Amino acid sequence: MPSRRRHSYTGGSSPATSSYSTTSTTLPDRSPAPSSTTTDRQAPNSLARWISGIFINCFTPPGSVSSKSFNDSEHDIRSRRSSTGSVQKHYYGNGNGNNGNETENQNQRFSFDEIYAATKNFSPSFRIGQGGFGTVYKVKLRDGSTVAVKRAKKSLHDDRQGAEFMSEIKTLAQVTHLSLVKYYGYLVHNDEKLLVVEYVPNGNLRDHLDCKDGKTLDMATRLDIATDVAHAITYLHMYTQPPIIHRDIKSSNILLTDNFRAKVADFGFARLAPDSESGATHVSTQVKGTAGYLDPEYLTTYQLTEKSDVYSFGVLLVELLTGRRPIELHREQKERITIRWAIKKFTSGDTISVLDPKLERNPSNNLALEKVLEMAFQCLAPHRGSRPSMKKCSEILWGIRKDYRELLNTSL
User: Where would I find the Protein kinase domain in this sequence (predicted)?
Assistant: First the structure.
């Protein structure tokens, strides 16, 4: 197992970008007329009530989150009771439109002034990531804990960025999973918007595949990471209500802990999945994502389903095995699109040539390569109906990892 990595959150060049960021492709809106399953922006006059409703879900276990609208009354939020019968406050920061200043709350864990002071007026020396959404800072709070703070760009006339900020809050408030970055709260102070999330100390997956600290992720670690990510996406698709589609699964959004367990980050592009009870099969929406990871069917039809995440996961698996980025502009034409190159090698019987050259060629690694690539190419099927579910991917990966460990132990 590699030793502890450096604590960097900055990624490499396009298409993989910095961790905790939303530097991704957004195409012009050619989507169909809005329907009951299409909603990309909240009405301004309901924003405050909508934000308030988020915090019910923030403190409710995922299994009990209601599928109703987030427009719950402020009375419900203030009087919602814990299992011990005491009244819980649900605000970490502003959520009720009080003159753009922070909400006073006896249970508030952090404040804008504390974050401002801890980062020395958002000094570049505390910066750990940069993306389309804004800048990410490492912040040590007064209680000794360390968090990551996303500071939104001050784009006063950019409704899109405001929508992405609120989308991430709405999504993070619903989820609790070991392999998802934890959400702690948000603050709105005058023209500042801050999102406070878990600080994951070991950088992002793309940096480790690039060996930026000179060390290589072994195959066992790569299989663990793939399994963690598969479980996280399965949770989003199957165990949240309503289901959530991430829309931006990529290596720079996979953060690693000190013991190299993966946590999926960056929910700025996340969308709620269609309501299956209504008979809807997809969400019609503007295409968002990152070049190289985008589901081609979603790209051409503007119809988003959970299978779009499955496609992106397939690209991520190929990236894990080959060490290459999805798009390699410096390579010759036939090798620039990594998944096409890998599929061609696989179908011609030359699978071993796509293995990351930094990995040893041995029976256990060769077995993992064959099995994972086979599943990855199923995820990359052109039509979503031919792709497996994320639950199925999780089950297959679990079996591959088990077989890999057994073969590795017998060969020692």
Answer: 122-378
> Quick one: residue 304, left, alpha or beta (phi over 0 = left, psi -120 to 50 = alpha)?
beta
Torsion of CA 180, 12, 163, 309, to 10 degrees: -50
Which residue among 248, 266, 295, 356 is the active-site one?
Answer: 248
412 vs 336, residue with greater confidence = 336
Q: What is the pLDDT of residue 160?
A: 65
Domains of the chain: 25-198 (3.30.200.20), 205-410 (1.10.510.10)
Rg (CA), the chain: 21
Determine if residue 154 is labeled as part of a ligand binding site.
yes
pTM for the complete prediction?
Answer: 0.73
Burial 297-336, CB ≥16 within 10 A → b, else e: bbeeebbbbbbbbbbbbbbbbbbbbbbbbbbeeeeeeeeb
pLDDT at 283: 74
Please indicate whether residue 248 is annotated as part of the active site. Answer: yes
